[in-house]
Amino acid sequence: MQDDNRNNNVTDPQKIGSLRGIAGLVSFSTILPLNIHTSIEEMAKFTWFWPVIGGFIGIIAGAFGFFLLNMVQIPQIIAAALIYSFMIWFNGFHHLDGLMDFGDGMMVHGTPEKKIEVMRDTRIGTGGMAYFVMVALVTFSSLGSAPAALIFPVILVSEVAAKMGIVTCATFSEAFPDGTGRFFIESMNKKFLLLSLVLASTIGFLALNITGIIGIIGGLLGGTLIAFVARRNFKWATGDILGTSNEIGRMLSLIIITWILLV
C-alpha cells in the first residue's frame, strides 16, 4: 500500500503539470481568461500540441463563420471581414503583432542584431503595416472565395495549419538567446514535428479528407518558408517570427484549400 501511495504521489504532480501546461498554452494562444498559474517553460514543453489547440480555436471560429454565412446569411464579402477579424481577435492579436514586427525588421539594412533590435521595437513602421495589409488582404480574399457550405471545415483546417506553421518554424530555427520565443524553439525537434504533423493531418482529414491534409501541408510550408527567411535575414528566430509563421501558415492553407475546392 505504501508503494502504491508513493507511485500516486509521483504521477499525480506530473499529470497536473501536463494539464496546467496545456491549459496555459490555450490561455496564451487565445483571449480566454483561464487564469492558469504556469510558466513559459512549462507551456513550451507542449509546443508540439499546438496544432490541436489550433483545432479548438478553429472549431469556435468555424462555428462563427457557419453562423454568419449559413444561418444569418449575410453577404460573404462582409462575412469574410467579420470572420478574419474574429480569428485574429480570438487569438489575442499575438501572432498579428509578430507579423507586423517581422515586417519592420525585414525593412532594415544591416546586421542581424540590428534587424532584431528594430523588430523588437514597440513602434510600428511602414514595413509592419505593409506586411499586415498584404497578409490580411489575401486571407480575407480566400475566406471570401471559399464555398459557404464548407466554411466551418475550411476555417478549422486553416487554424490547425496556422499552428502547424509555428511548430515547423520552431523546429527549423535557431533560437535568439533572449526572449520567450526561445523556450518554444528549444522544445521542438523533428520527432515532435512528426507527432504534430500526424495530429494535424488527422484533424485535417476528418474535416476535409485529402484536401484537409493538403491544407495542413500549406501550414507546414509556411513555417518552413519563414524559418528560411529568418535564417537569411535575422540568423536567429524570436517569438515575433513564430507569430509570423502562424499568419503565413493560415494564409497559405486558405489559398490552397480554396483553390482546390473551386477547381
> Whole-Å distance between the termini?
65 Å
Helical amount: over 70%
SSE topology string: HHHHHHHHHHH
| Approximate strand percentage | under 5%
Question: What is Rg?
Answer: 19 Å
- By oligomeric state, this entry counts as single chain
Mean pLDDT: 89
What class, by secondary structure content? mainly alpha
- So what's the overall shape? globular
Number of DSSP E strands: 0
How would you characterize the largest beta sheet?
A: none
Would you identify the regions where 5 or more consecutive residues have pLDDT less than 50?
1-10
Contiguous helical run count: 11
Task: Describe the secondary structure blueprint for this structure.
Layout: H1 2-29, H2 40-44, H3 50-72, H4 76-90, H5 94-106, H6 112-119, H7 126-145, H8 151-171, H9 181-187, H10 190-233, H11 239-262
Helix pairs in contact: 3-4, 3-8, 3-10, 4-7, 5-6, 5-7, 5-11, 7-11, 8-9, 8-10, 8-11, 10-11
Task: Please provide a written account of the structure.
- The protein is mainly alpha-helical and 263 residues long.
- It is built from eleven helices and no strands.
- The N and C termini lie far apart (65 Å).
- Mean pLDDT is 89; it is low at 1-10.
List keywords for this structure.
single chain; 263 residues; mainly alpha; 79% helix; globular; disordered N terminus
Brief overview:
By secondary structure, the chain is an all-alpha fold. The chain is built from 11 helices and no strands.
